[in-house]
Structures are given as C-alpha cells and as structure tokens.
Amino acid sequence: MINWGKVWSDFFIVLALTSNVGFIFSHDPYQLVVAIGVNLIATVLKFGAKKILAAEMLATALVADLHLIPATFLYFTGTHVPLAIGLAIGAAVANIISIVLLVVEIIFEYKSEEEF
Amino acid sequence: MKKKKKIPHYGNVKPKSYRAIYEEKFYNVLFQLRFPLMTIIFFTTVGVLSLMIINNKTDGESVLNYLFHTIITFSTVGYTEGYTDNISLNRLFSTLFIMVAFPLAYLYGLVATVNAFLNSNIGEIYRYWRMYKHMEKLRGHYIIVRFNNITKETMRNLKRRGIKFVLIEPDRRREEEIKKFGVDFYVFDEPHKREVLLGVGIEHAKGLITAFEENTQDLAVIVTARLIRPDKDNFIIIATATNEGAGEKMKLLGANEVVVPSVTIGRRIASYVLHPPSPTISKFLEKIAYGERTDIDIIEMKVEENSTLVGKRLKEIHMRQETGATVVAIIREDGKMKIAPSGETEIKAGDALLILGHPKSLKRVEEFFERALEEKEEEKQLQEVKSDD
Fold this sequence. Notes:
The complex is a heterodimer of chains A (116) and B (389). Chain A is 85% helix and 0% strand. Chain A is mainly alpha-helical. Chain A has one domain. Chain A is elongated and about 55 Å long. Chain B is α/β, with parallel strands linked by helices and 389 residues long. Chain B contains 13 helices and ten strands. In chain B, strands 3-2-1-4-5-6 form a six-stranded parallel beta sheet, with helices on both faces. In chain B, strands 7-10-8-9 form a four-stranded antiparallel beta sheet, covered by helices on one side. In chain B, β8 and β9 form a beta hairpin. Classes of the chains: A mainly alpha (116), B alpha/beta (389). Chains A and B meet through α2 and α3 of A and α1 and α2 of B.
C-alpha cells in the first residue's frame, strides 16, 4: 500500500528543489513566489516527524527557507538581484541535501523492516 | 559482525527517559500544526501568484500589496483593496478566492493552529521537560517512594539540609498535592520497575527511602533497588514496615534500616515516661539526633589503618583548630565507648570518632580524614623512591 502521508511530504520536498532550480535558471518572479511557498510547505510538513533523521531534515529545510526569504526581499526590492540568485542557489544545495537525507532514511527504514 | 553489548547484572533493561516522553509530547503538538500551516501557506502563495498574473505586475511594491491583500482577505480583516486597475477582474478573483480560502485557510488553518496551542498545555510540557532535564544531572541524591505523611516529613527535613531527592509516586491523581507541597523532582510511575528506578538515576543515587502503606509494595521496591545496587555500604535503603516480622524480612532482603512506625512511637512515649523531658537538654539532643537543627550535626568517622592519624594523641592532630569540630566520643574497635575523651587519648586503627559541629565544619572534617589518608600514601611513595635509590 502506498503511504499517502509520505507521498505528500516527499512530493513537496522534491518540488521544493525543482521549483528552486527553475527560479535559478529563469530569474522569474512568479517562479520565486512558487519556490518560497513550496519550500515553506516542505518545512511545515517535517514538523513533529519522529524518524531517525527528522532533526537533520528539519534543519536543512530551515536553511533553505532562510536563504529564500532574504532572496525574495532582495529580488523584489531590485537592489541586489545577483545576490538573490546566489541565495537561491544556496537554498537549492540545502534542498539537495534534504533529498539525500530522505533517501538515506528510506534505506534505513527498509533495513530495519527486514530485521524484524 | 555486530559487537555484543555487555548486559548488566540486573538484566537488559534501559532506563526510562522521562525527558524524551515530554519531548515527544512537544513534537506531537508540532505535528498537529502540519496541515493547518500548510493550508495557510498554500493559499497565501496561490493568492499572491494569481494577483500577480491578473494584474501582470511583478515589481516589489505590487507584490507586497498582493501579499497584504491576500492575508487581509482570508483573515476577514479587509482594510483596503491591494489593486488599483482591472477592478472588476480582481474583484471576481477575490470573490472566488474568499469562497475557498475563508473556510479552508481561516476556519481550518488559523483556528486549528490556535487550537493546537491552547489545548496542548505547552507551558506544562515545558515545565516537566525542564525538570527532567535537570533530574538527569543529579548525583548523590535520594530516591523517595510514595507521597504520604511520613515521606512528607522526611522531604521537609532533607530540603532544610539542601539534600536533593526524587519522588516516585504511582498515583497520578496526587499531582496537584505534590506541586503544592513543592517537590523539585517527581515522576509518576511504578517504583518497582527497573526502568523507572534507572530512569530516576538510581545508579548515581546515594539511597532510597520507601514508605508504602503495604509491606508487599515496599518489598518489591527494596528487592528491585538492591538488584541494581547490590552494595549495601554505597547505597542505603530505608523502609517502613507495619510489623516487626515484615521489617526483619525487609532487612534480610536488602534494606539497611527498617522503621516500624508503631514500635518507634511506642518506644518514644515510654522514653518520655522514663526520662521526663527537660525543656532544654532533651529537646536539644533530640533535635540533633533527628537532624532538625541546621547549625549543628553529629557524624561518625572511621579511622582507617593506613591513615596518618593512627598512633597520634587527640591533641596532636589539631583537628579542632583546623576544622572547628569537636570529638565528643571515641568508639573502639571492640565496641567500647569513650565519652568526652581527653587530649591525651591515643587514636588507634579501627576507631570510630563521633564528631560534633556545624555542618560546614563537618564537611572540613571529612576532607581532613581524606587528607590524612592521602598523606600516608605520599609518605609510602617517598619511602619507595628512597629505597630504590
């Protein structure tokens, strides 16, 4: 059976990265609004998870948010657009780490299921 | 290959982490916020994006206006519209948006978020979490089992001396009473379980006091505690029993001291009859004996064979000058007691000195005795070095 709760959170974790990458290449304001919205949702969905890497996942998500929020400010004030793009790239790196952790967690879960 | 872990002598039991229980409760509150917060963020993003597309404006000022417009829309505040052109198209969007966003983002999202905080008792969770965090750091404390009139009096006296203790009470309904009484550390759990005793730090504790109304429960606690800490000298267990037979059994099973309340009270009354209490002297001695006075106390110090004190006369060790405490009696190894010894009395190995003084002086006395042992060690080492040469 598919665990639909997991589909939701995994969906947003991956979408956070893809929308972020989309902004980095397009420099488009619409894409930036989508990226920040999706990143915030991905963070919120990690609240209260009680898995092995829950703390690390939440931390990476917060890092991505703290890159994107100032990036949004800088982008829309129009003063430091290159810096905003730089911050978005930083957020994308955090998103990638988040996905790597997600995969590690899946492997751990798979292993522990085998043991019992 | 996996390394085999050493299983402790009391079996493969892990200490119960009370801190983790309350951490989990906090995570559960956060967990409840997931979907409400997600809804709010989702509708904010959709609102801002839609307004950006409808008005075809992406400059900072407009985007801020659209964010403001979206939030005042679904929170039903509605100061002023965040757009100036395309009024009819914008109003059409706003109408549709309110119809969807008001029930979902406001009635569900915001209300559920506030509700999760109000119903979860966050302050209480934090208070317990902090208490258990400090509890984990306790060393040399006492464990007191059961909250009743006997242990209340015990705790009051221990508190006056600044001795730390953890209370284990099986009945959660007494929470209010315990809070009112002002106990620093308490858990609600079954005290005869190994994980519970390990959880309150029995491995670093000095002793355990158990005072159930029923002997069987006391016995269960004594046996469990003794199983984890078998050494009677380093971990003392004090218990109460309803009759002397049960008391004897408890002693055989590992209690250091057992108090039978009816016997103790009866003896005390008889002693009042036999020695009519003098208002000053008897009260004074009694208060020292029961540890009710905080300015004076009495301790028994054993003189080890390898101490420098052995063979010296009382006046030669200058203990009173150094520590401020006085030797009031010497108990020889054969059990004979020398009360009010003179300065000429010689200290022998195996003697026990009864020392009276201020608790601070008595602390110094303990250090004084430790030093006497260390000095002897150093002397030995020096002699060894000399003989090697």
